[in-house]
Amino acid sequence: RAPNAAEGVASWYGPGFAGRLTANGERFDPAAPTMAHPRLPFDTLVRVSNPENGRSIVLRVNDRGPYVEPRIADVSYGAAQQLGFVQNGLVVAELEVLG
Predict the structure, then answer these.
(1) Which residues make Cβ contacts (< 8 Å) with residue 60, sequence separation at least 6?
(2) CA dihedral of 78, 37, 55, 16, whole degrees rounded to 10
């Protein structure tokens, strides 16, 4: 694995948080291509991949979290739809920091 990559459990958050402020001060939009990460700088672009189905999406870090171990990322509801894990709620995902 590349030094800018990680693998771990990702989850999603969505409609219940719509309109609330994210950690960087934006209003959360469940359809936006955004994610929460505990340490990466805001506005970092991350390719999140679901190895189970081969889907991937580029997301922008705009929030902090997840706060549940051992999860490594929370993605927006829209991103989870595109990655194909809304029903499961969790996925073992691959994260690759871009740029």
Answers:
(1) 33, 34, 35, 43, 44, 45, 46
(2) -20
